[in-house]
Amino acid sequence: MNKVLVDTCLYIEWFRGNLLEHSNELLSNIPYLSSIVATELIAGAHSKIQKREISKFISHYEEADRIISPSHNICFQAGKCIEKLTIPSKNILGDSLIAMSAKSIGAEVWTINSKDFNLIKKVFPFKLKVILAV
User: Fold this and answer.
1) What per-residue confidence (pLDDT) applies to 89?
2) What is the structure's pLDDT at 83?
3) Structural contact between residues 100 and 79, judged by C-beta atoms closer than 8 angstroms
4) Residue whose C-alpha is closest to residue 16's, from 35, 38, 43, 44
5) Which residues contact 56 (CB under 8 A, 6 or more apart)?
6) Which of 3, 72, 129, 132 sits at a 20 to 30 Å CA gap from 10?
7) What is the pLDDT of residues 5-31, one digit of tens each?
8) Which CATH superfamily is domain 3-130 in?
9) CA 120, CA 48: separation in Å to the nearest integer?
10) Under 8 Å CB-to-CB from 73, ≥6 apart: which residues?
């Protein structure tokens, strides 16, 4: 079993009922939740029902003690990564923090966002699995 940190966009697709064929694969690993992803999920919830469901989803990770929050060192590394990439930091800050957090616990990032994470990987190697959206 491997540690896995799932990106926001992939969770959104799962919540929409897409990419369910990867659910068993995720559950056969040890899933962690980035506090960055939790923030993005809560911020993107529009209705009371969505907010309640997302909060319930996050609470399962809290109960299992599988929330990963970036430390000062991880934030510093993300800043160094962005500095090397020469693209606007607001476009890649969250993804950089997710990648650095995953590396800090030896986890693989799962995403459908190959563009940003492959850019980050060029300057800061980490384990990455890109799931192809249909």
Assistant:
1) 57
2) 87
3) no
4) 44
5) none
6) 72
7) 999 998 888 888 887 676 777 778 889
8) 5'-nuclease (3.40.50.1010)
9) 35
10) 104
- pLDDT tens, residue by residue, 40-70: 999 999 999 999 999 999 999 999 999 999 9
HSE of 81 in the Cβ direction (CA atoms, 13 Å)?
A: 30
The sign of the dihedral angle between the CA atoms of 44, 56, 8, 18 is: negative
pTM of the model: 0.89
Q: Is the four-CA dihedral 112, 31, 129, 90 of positive or negative sign?
A: positive
Report which residue type is found at 59: S
Helix axis angle, 72-85 to 89-105, nearest 10°: 130
Provide the pLDDT for residue 20: 66
Mean predicted confidence (pLDDT) in 99-114: 94
The domain ranges of the chain are 3-130
| 55, 2, 116, 16: CA torsion to nearest 10 | -40
Exposed (0-12), middle (13-18) or buried (19+): which is 36, by Cβ within 10 Å?
Answer: buried
Instruction: Output the six-digit token pair for 1.
Output: 């079993």
